[in-house]
Amino acid sequence: MNRVSVRILPVLIFLLFHVSKSEDEEVKRSLVGFMDKLAAGNVGRDQSWGWNMSSDPCNDKWIGVSCDTLSKSVKKVVLDELNLTGVLDIGFACKASSLSVLSLHSNNVVGSISEEIGNCKHLTHLYVSGNQISGHLPESLKQLSNLKRFDISNNNFSGEVPDISQISGLITFFAQNNQLTGEVPNLDFSHLLQLNISNNNFSGPIPDVKGRFSADSFSGNPGLCGELVSKPCPPTPPSKRKSNHSSIKRFFIYSGYAVLGLIVVLFVAFKLVSKMKPKDDKEAVETNTSRRSYKTSTTTSNESKIAENKSEYSISSVESGMALSSLVVLTSPTGQGLRFEDLLRAPAELLGKGKHGSLYKVMLDNGVTTLAVKRIKDWSVDSEEFKRRMKRLDQTRHPSVLPSVAFYCSQQEKLLVYEYQPNGSLFRLLHGSQSGQAFGWESRLNVAAIVGEALAFMHEELGEDGIAHGNLKSTNILFNQNMDPCISEYGLMVFQTQDLSFDFQSSKDALDHAAPTYGSFKADIYGFGVILLELLTGKPVHTNGIDLARWVHSVVTEEWTVEVFDKGLISQGASEERLLNLLQIALKCINPNPYERPNMNQVAVMISTLKDEEDRSSSHP
């Protein structure tokens, strides 16, 4: 038996290697076919271009191709302004399953976007502006759940735009100068940062765009109406269907009245019968109820004591005798079925302590489920305000803001439960044992763009509620299992002017005279600016008593600006121009005068533009 196994083993190894190579060859063959159709023989392609079966897209650096340094898979294809006049076959490109950026800006490509675009599951940026592409947009666009920027402007697209409202992360939609028809696309306008659908054939009312876009975004569509374009929409005529709907609605209303009347009659009858019962029965019921309450309180206290002995880091000491039903579970699927006694009994590991409380790692179901529990002490916000904030935050979701799973609050202290994020914080990534060595410029700019866009969304949605982050710093930027950044502990802290570091007195004086909510949002922007400085310099906020923001200002003032940047970024060949541009954005954010700081929406757009420039340039040799 062993002899047979030994003979088969080399065959299995050969087959495994052969299959792996075949998959690579298939992707390469598809990419070569993609370029063959695009170039159509009119572009002089020498060996330096690559894009042939005798070379490798990553190792031999095909023109316009960027690869993931670890997996050696194609991440970006940027072929802007290369006078390509062939046919777009998106199916070939999507064979590269890890493709995140496809840009064919300013060529003369023809063809259409086929349904196979849905296979590009990781696509975040699609730019095909300035070509001759035509046809309808495919329904499979809605499958691109990671799409952030979509630019099909200056082409010949026609037909209606499919419903892509489920793409929650979309922040740019450019479709101007086409022949698109139907109603205005169904988009998440509260999330969108850039929109232009001018010079098409859209018709009907312009939806509520949350005041984010002007009439210019919709001009050149004679069939559009609404307040934004100063053209009233015609009244909608009543239909038979609507009439039938109204009749059904009236039926249910009258039925409801009848049921309500019956309930009132039964209630009055019940009260009359209750008064006729002997008083002794009532006292007996009250006595039994009292005994049950005492028993519940005792059980709770005993369970707390048991949990206290379970772990030296146990969170069970939060309050003896707290009601088991006091944990409020929110809408996150992770929290379904979670009970307070589960948290009390579970082993917990203390991750850290700060001036605002302690953070624990709690393992449930024998380690199957891992949660992070934030225990907050000495917070001035009362319980009712805390509950209001938590429930409002639960209604405001963004994929890059870590949602609460559950919460508990009393007058003494409060608990917040989150999903545990396994890859640590931005602070650890930048200043830990690796000191940011494996954290290149492109990754840092990506973090800045994602966090900035998420913070802009939260500020926009929660501005009227006055709920800012309140404690934004690099330790509160966490990485999930895919190494995507997300903001944690949003809305947990109330802004305090004492938390500001650089030019403390002038900032404090200015904010003391501002509305509290205004100050809290401006403090978030300051905190984000400091995070940008950490990304650029690789230095922590405080080093040997030196404040990072103050140090950066002093170096810039002495015109030694390049000395600010992390030496590792310079050695990796990061563009000094874009480093300087991001530094300018950071300096705007930490302006000592809060009134002169930009809002987060403006900051997000500036960083997004910078990232687009980086995406376009990084793929050119």
TrEMBL record:
- Keyword Nucleotide-binding listed? The answer is yes
Q: Which GO terms describe its cellular component?
A: membrane
Identify the domain of life. Eukaryota
Where it sits in the cell: the answer is: Membrane
Q: Name one Pfam family in it.
A: LRR_1
PROSITE patterns per UniProt: PROTEIN_KINASE_ATP (PS00107), PROTEIN_KINASE_DOM (PS50011)
Which residues does the annotation say bind ATP? Answer: 374
Q: Where is the Protein kinase domain?
A: 345-621
Membrane-spanning residues: 251-273
Keyword Cell inner membrane in annotation: no
Output compositional bias ranges, type Low complexity: 287-302
What does UniProt give as the signal peptide span?
1-22
For this UniProt record, give its keywords in alphabetical order, as a comma-separated list: ATP-binding, Leucine-rich repeat, Membrane, Nucleotide-binding, Repeat, Signal, Transmembrane, Transmembrane helix
One of the record's GO molecular function terms: ATP binding
- Which residue stretches belong to region Disordered? 280-309
Record's protein name:
Protein kinase domain-containing protein
User: Taxonomic lineage per UniProt?
Assistant: Eukaryota, Viridiplantae, Streptophyta, Embryophyta, Tracheophyta
